[in-house]
Amino acid sequence: MEALLEALNPRGRRSPVLPTLLAGSALAVAVALGLALGLPVSEPEPEPEPVGQTSATRPGRAQTCSVDRTRIDALWNPIRADAIADELGTGTGTWRRAAERLDHWTEDWLRVQATTCDELTHELHDLRLACLAGQLDRLAVTLDELATPTLDRRRIDGVIGVIAGLPGPDRCLDDVALRERSWAPQPDSNERLAELEASTNQLAVRFELGRTQARATSIESARQLVVAADELGSPGLHARALLLLANHLEREANSGVEAERVLLEAMRVSASVREFEIEVAAALGLAKLLGARGLPEDALRWVVLAEGLVGLAPTDLALRAACATTRATIALGRSDWAAAQVALERALELLESHGSDNLQLPIVASDLAGVLEHQGQRPRALELRRRALAIHERQHGPDHPRVGWARRDLAVALLALGESESARVEFSQALANLEANLGPGRETALVRDQLEWLEHAGPSE
User: Fold this and answer.
1) Which of 65, 68, 292, 419 shows a CA-CA span of 20 to 30 A to 373?
2) What is the largest CA-CA distance in the chain?
3) What are the φ and ψ backbone dihedral angles of 437, each rounded to 5 degrees?
4) How far apart are CA 341 and CA 350, in angstroms?
5) Would you tell me the crossing angle of helices 378-396 and 401-416 to the nearest 10 degrees?
6) pLDDT band at 186 (very low <50, low <70, confident <90, very high)
7) Nearest to 132 by CA among 143, 117, 122, 144
């Protein structure tokens, strides 16, 4: 029985250690790449006022602004939604939930656009418009990638995540960030800047979706973006490209030294333009690299630095949670289960205060359950397993692969507490889910073997 339990919950890809590392890494990267994308890099040219729409004029300038949903409706509409659903080939609730997130995002974008137009005399009005335009550029790339036939349908796991990573429209009302991070390119560099922005957005979205592409090709594309952004003289774009390159390198064997160098450069460049979200992501990336090398004290120094940077935005709970999960990863690397529990409890508390919509919440709950199980605190761990399953179902739909994994983990927890009949039910549903999403493989085979054992053993075993 112990061997079976260990096989079903291996200390591998979904053990308490690695999911925590992934939670911290993915969260920090999503924040750094997503939020930074919502900030302007140039001041837009005035556009002619549409016929039949009202506008105000800024004193001394021939600038207009009107609430116009033409472009956003062209990007996101029922026909586009149906086309993407057909391409994903899913009849599950996953795309429906993803589409709901897009509906909410577009509503927020239009609200911020209206606010910007109402405040036409605001000194940063043009920068706000540029910010909003940049966010629509990111939306366009995201939807194009989702509709591309080469998307690996087995990786639908990343669809909701990439949509959740869209920069929040309210960022375009952050006057401090707009003022500090705006960069005015030379007139002859605008076209080149737009090209590099589009390429960076595309590579970032493909990375988040886990597209099947040769890693060497992706790394080389990221390197070219780094060089081009540096030559153009756009520090914000340069920092983003460096972070993107580092994340590609982290997936490649024997690239740790280069990844460390790139992360250090990302910190330097982002600090020069006060892109502290990218600084945090780079610092946490360095912490993970050093922790994986068996240097926990050095790793913790980078976490402390990241926590100090997060202090610049104390309301950003997601970044603070990323710091906590990275602390947990380092603690687990040296088998300090008590310290890992403290860090994960903190991360869970932060994410809970942020609402139940955060995609990291069920992952952290599951990681904490694994730590508690290791320490013999199985009743509370079981409660967390149930909660993680419920949140995954609500966020992704009942047929999403994350729900299948969560059911499998819950079944293992139930079996360890002697609740064999309840475990059999969960194993059965987990098997159906994983077979539909993953097909034949080790994970489905293990669940099938355990289910067959339980059915032959009977409820009294």
Assistant:
1) 292
2) 84
3) -90, -40
4) 14
5) 160
6) low
7) 117
On the question of pLDDT at 224 being above 50, the answer is yes
Say which residues have a Cβ less than 8 Å from residue 178's Cβ, sequence separation at least 6: 39, 40, 124, 127, 128, 131, 172
| 191 contacts: CB under 8 Å, gap ≥ 6 | none
CA distance 200 to 293: 30
Tell me the H-state helices in 334-441: 337-353, 360-374, 378-396, 401-416, 420-438
The mean pLDDT value of the chain amounts to 81
CB within 8 A of 328, min separation 6: which ones?
20, 24, 339, 340, 343, 344, 347, 367, 371
Q: Both tokens of residue 95?
A: 């795309």
Contact 196, 225 (CB under 8 A): yes
- Say which residue, 457 or 147, is predicted with more confidence: 147
pLDDT, tens only, 95-130:
888 899 999 999 999 999 999 888 877 778 888 888
Q: What are phi and psi of 263, to 5 degrees?
A: -65, -40
Predicted model pTM: 0.80
Cα–Cα distance measured from residue 185 to residue 322, given in angstroms and rounded to the nearest whole number: 33
What is the spatial distance between Cα 350 and Cα 330, in angstroms, rounded to a whole number? 19
